[in-house]
Amino acid sequence: MSVHPMIAALRKHKAGVILIAMQIALTLAIVCNAIFIIYTRVDNVRRPSGLDEANLFLVTQQWVGAPSGDDPDSIAKLDALEREDLAALRAMPDVESVTPTNSVPLLNSSWTGSVALKPGSDLRGGTARTAFYFGDENELATLGVRLVAGRNFTAADVVNRAMRDQRQPSLVIVSKALGDKLFPKGDAVGKAVYFNGDTMPTTIVGEVERLQVPSTSSWSSGFFWDTTIAPIRLNANFSRYLIRTKPGRLEAAMRAVTPTLYKTNPMRVLDDDSVKSFADIRSDAYRADIGMAVLMGIVCLILLAVTAAGIVGLTSFWVGQRHRQIGVRRALGARKIDILHYFQLENLLIAGIGALIGIALAIGLNMVLIKNFEMSRMPIVYVLGGLVVVLLLGQAAVFVPARRASNVPPVVATRSV
Amino acid sequence: MLGYYLDLAVRSLKRNKILTALMIMTLALGIGASITTLTVLRLLSGDPLPQKSARLFYPQVDPNTLDGYVAGQTKPDATMAYPDAMNLLHARRAKRQAVMALTQAKIIPQHANEHPYFSDGVMTTADFFGMFDAPFQYGGGWTADDDENRAALVVIADFLNDKLFGGANSVGKVIRINDHDFRIVGVLKHWAPQPRFYTQDLGSRDYGDGDGVFMPLQTARSMDMGPEDTECYASVTDVEHLELAPCEWLGMWVELGDSAAVTDYKSFLDGYVKQQIALGRFKRSDTALLGLMGWLSDQQVVPNDARLQVYLAFGFLLICVVNTVGLLLAKCLRRSREIGVRRALGATRRAIFAQFMVEAGIVGLAGGLIGLLLAELGLLGVRHQPADYASLAHLDIQMFLFTFVVALVASLIAGLLPAWRACVMAPAPQLKAA
């Protein structure tokens, strides 16, 4: 089939052709950027925290009338309060393991610092940034992270320290990502590092496979997997306990934990947010991402539907207008399939032109988004995917009116002339 | 004449119900989406203190070392260290000035059987209330002398007063916060600026209900209450005495009467920094004095997602308008015979143009009406989001009217091309073809 007469025919419908092409171009530009946004958000949400997340919950509480934590005596008192809580929690029937902790992955509460290979480096100019987790010998087991090199903490490693004590830990376990960043040969275990510009060395005793930093915001994206676990029980006017329950006993343990803690010591603040399952922490952390992905998805679907409806509308009109020409072509020997192909090819031509403009628009839109919204460059595969989608959409939308056109009987040509 | 056009338009729209419904729904979807996102954006980027924002400024200085410093390109830090905040505060070079930090206040109820709870607290200085026009229900703020004397005074918010004292005048009563007794000197009326501009970079309280308790900074610090956010610019050995540590944790606001006062204050700030450089405390000479709205945009307080959604919605509306143009054009060209007859019977081009614009306008108004319903639905969805601004998402009268303006403008733009095509059509060939 020659394209030439088709182009000649389209010249008579400039407005319609431009409108369809424009719509396809805009749809392509928005849809492939939207799908890229969906992909980045879903990718964020799907990255594993490194934790065994089932059967895990977190309790955050604050003491009332607690000692100040400024002198050794009151620090000892705070530590006694904390150990009393830990003992009570460990005695609960549904609990498997408990650790005190300062934060957990996906929780919006971070303690970050720098690591350097030399003593006394500038605080902001260390070799790497890292987020700290402080816990006792049960921290690894409770988090459910896997040790891949070196050893776990023992009860003898664990010290208690006031929240404001600025001394660095004498030994730590780091994530493999951080270990490899500091020691690219992969031999971090046993090496000495310096935290926060300190001159006292800290020894790396072990490496865990993977452990995410607490924050999920963009400021932490540079050191997302670079974490450090220190065997320190922090003493402050608040405490946080991460609790792993026996399989399937999460709800029962969460219900029992508030009464247990109040029974141990009623002078504390425990409110609605104090007891949180890890599933809730995860859904809170990523709620905005998921919401955005769903919204983008809905918008894409509606957009495609609207564009398809527009194509059906305009093509139907063309078919109605060209009834007689179609009759003439049929009378001169064109088969039904020829008429069908004619409209399909015509749509492919218009959609193709639209899609070409759309590719340019999509890339332009992506650049605007990179500039204004800290987004990354869209891989070309999204544009190609979008191209296929709009071309198929055009073909699907044109099929019904084209079928109607192919059913125009040849006799129409001879009638009413 | 308009009545006749309306009649014609309704008849024509009724003739092809599916096409009409499609046009109206397309337009409604586009309008619903853009009004929803725009309402949220407007809510988020609004002026928290419209009567005062032009006179409020946020001074910044930079105590960092020269590491990574590029003259003229490095922004000063968002918060201040204690000595600088106090020096600037005591200089009293602005009409009013206050420094502030956020804290978690642990409120201990009088009744033994109630459990203690947290309330958002602000540690600040005397001018805070007057400078920010915080309205009092009972009593008032404290004085600069109270600040220096570390008086255990507190101003509480209306919701806390309702909770603790059933809304009665509680001035003079004592409440226990973080294990210390505070005497109430004032109770605020409802006061929750959106966004909570004075908390920027001091903690994560952007929108939502206001703060619960306001305490003199030095008093709260002497009772060991800590700021929510601390950023240290040098190695720290002692964070207990934050006042002496190389750490930034205070925000400062000043009220300046006119632009001359702003220029004066900026040169005062520059002079202060030069003096600190001479003393060897500072290395960098950059300062900033942003106005309230400038500070909010510098802090990017509006979430990126909200802005992205507005982009998306308006892209969507654009496609909807293009689509409506196409459908209206198809409808109009199909009626070329009718137009030919009308023209032959004496209708002017202007009359035909008007007729088609009226038809487009009806589609627009119908689309706007349904779009309004969709926007209400969308905002209902937003209110069920967990974001702290969610409960504020309501369509106000301005946005309500704006919806119809958008709908009408969108549909009239969509109608222009078809109407023009209709009115330039020569009547004779159309009649001949019949």
From TrEMBL, chain A:
The chain crosses the membrane at residues 15-39, 292-319, 348-369, 381-400. It is found in: Cell membrane. The keyword Hydrolase does not apply. It comes from Dyella lipolytica. It is a multi-pass membrane protein. The keyword Hydrolase does not apply. InterPro entries: ABC3_permease_C (IPR003838), MacB_PCD (IPR025857), Macrolide_Exporter_MacB (IPR050250). Residues 298-410 form the ABC3 transporter permease C-terminal domain. Keywords: Cell membrane, Membrane, Transmembrane, Transmembrane helix. Belongs to the ABC-4 integral membrane protein family. Residues 26-257 form the MacB-like periplasmic core domain. Its main location: membrane. This is ABC transporter permease. Pfam families: FtsX, MacB_PCD.
From TrEMBL, chain B:
InterPro entries: ABC3_permease_C (IPR003838), MacB_PCD (IPR025857), Macrolide_Exporter_MacB (IPR050250). This is ABC transporter permease. It is found in: Cell membrane. Residues 20-243 form the MacB-like periplasmic core domain. Its main location: membrane. It comes from Dyella lipolytica. It is a multi-pass membrane protein. The chain crosses the membrane at residues 21-44, 310-330, 351-375, 395-417. The lineage of its organism: Bacteria, Pseudomonadati, Pseudomonadota, Gammaproteobacteria, Lysobacterales. It comes from the Bacteria. It holds the Pfam family MacB_PCD. Signal peptide: none annotated. Keywords: Cell membrane, Membrane, Transmembrane, Transmembrane helix. Residues 312-423 form the ABC3 transporter permease C-terminal domain.
